[in-house]
Amino acid sequence: MVITLQLDSSTPLYEQLRNQIVIGIATGELKPEEKLPTVRQLADDLGINTMTVNKAYALLKQEGYIVIDRRHGAKVRIPTLPASSDPSPQIEEQLQLIIAQATIQGVDQSRFQAICSQIFAKMVYRLP
Amino acid sequence: MVITLQLDSSTPLYEQLRNQIVIGIATGELKPEEKLPTVRQLADDLGINTMTVNKAYALLKQEGYIVIDRRHGAKVRIPTLPASSDPSPQIEEQLQLIIAQATIQGVDQSRFQAICSQIFAKMVYRLP
Amino acid sequence: MVITLQLDSSTPLYEQLRNQIVIGIATGELKPEEKLPTVRQLADDLGINTMTVNKAYALLKQEGYIVIDRRHGAKVRIPTLPASSDPSPQIEEQLQLIIAQATIQGVDQSRFQAICSQIFAKMVYRLP
Amino acid sequence: MVITLQLDSSTPLYEQLRNQIVIGIATGELKPEEKLPTVRQLADDLGINTMTVNKAYALLKQEGYIVIDRRHGAKVRIPTLPASSDPSPQIEEQLQLIIAQATIQGVDQSRFQAICSQIFAKMVYRLP
DNA sequence: GTGGTCTAGACCACC
DNA sequence: GTGGTCTAGACCACA
């Protein structure tokens, strides 16, 4: 899986890292139970500090995306949630902001939905 | 229009302010040509510094959401662009992350689309 | 002569006004000895305060572009300077900044000179 | 690189700072990838507030002149755009005003072009 | 150690 | 009256 960081972005490196791993999990590039690189290795590959990778992993663990096993390192968590639940209010809030911006930019609902469909098509994450 | 800031949030105050005003414009709570509160007034109401409001206004101006007229203060910009159908790549990226998270949280596409519809229903912003 | 003001510009109205009149003089839209509109009339036409027009006229007078006669109002000044003098250091400084920006934007010297020629072609101001 | 601010100028300090840095980049005094002083350092050297320097840096970043890397501070951006031959309309407008003023001051085209050449001779910025 | 954010309070230009 | 600028000093997140 390819990870690219923008060093000059306003979003912190650890957050960019976290975001890309989350997307990787959702798109199936990282499968459940799959082992993530070690902190040191990933930091080396990306040319960043181990602390930064550490922070990203800790965040992902705290959010429940991965599990960290002292013996085997970090692994993608096996899905446990049932389907069709509601999104967290946090996500709904972010979605509202995005839709507001899109609306003002002149994107109508049907176009927006089409784009969502395209993105969903790439998500192959399967629930239990 | 009611604006509420979370002082303990990681998103800066001026950005929260900017976001809420953008949503206000999209939902029609703030209509085109409508005058925004003065920086002093808003700063007072929210109990924050004028420079913070100033920064939010400057950002909104730079992004083209509002217009600052030396004579009458800040106003919501009248829409000029025709429906441009495609969202900015930046928005698409954010949307991908949101959908990834929703997917892992167990929200399926139809549920997601339903939520989008609900949000779109509140957007009454009309293009020229 | 058509004057258009941007109410939301960062350059003050009186300065925009002054700039457009200076350009009008240089392009010959306003000829030497030609009478400018009265302060009140111009203010009315543009929908701005008379003080603003007043300030622009005062500035133009101070800079030597116009003369203000109490009986006949404001007139374009008859040129007195000999040709081939050097530009004011102020102008040279501004020019340096513009060329710096153009260079970084990827405009090379020949292209720049061509644009200058185009602009000069429109200047029909004749010296004594 | 020497930076001198005029405290009594009508152009804001942060803009003077921005202008001088832009010129520095174009003249090669600041080379691509070169690190700019830290905001604190520069503020100290110039005897102004850190926020003022901050604002200048933010502006330069927004305009694409510099890049701010969380790890190493601000750096001159490596040129990426190929020679685009045409200047922005904004620059063309400024140029028109300058030429208008020069014309009225009695500077003819050949003299003006000569001055441009002199200035261009100092610009050593090279595109990719 | 870096930039980013925020405050309280001040002054100024513009209209 | 408005927004814009600047200061001095503080705290925080990031790396």
Automatic annotation (TrEMBL), chains A, B, C, D:
Stored PANTHER family: GNTR-FAMILY TRANSCRIPTIONAL REGULATOR, HTH-TYPE TRANSCRIPTIONAL REPRESSOR YTRA
Family matches, as PROSITE patterns: HTH_GNTR
The keyword Lipid biosynthesis appears for this protein: no
Keywords: DNA-binding, Transcription, Transcription regulation
Pfam families registered for this protein in UniProt: GntR (PF00392)
Species of origin: Paenibacillus chartarius
Ranges where the HTH gntR-type domain occurs: 11-79
Database matches in CDD domains: WHTH_GntR
Listed SMART domains: HTH_GNTR (SM00345)
Identification of the protein by name: GntR family transcriptional regulator
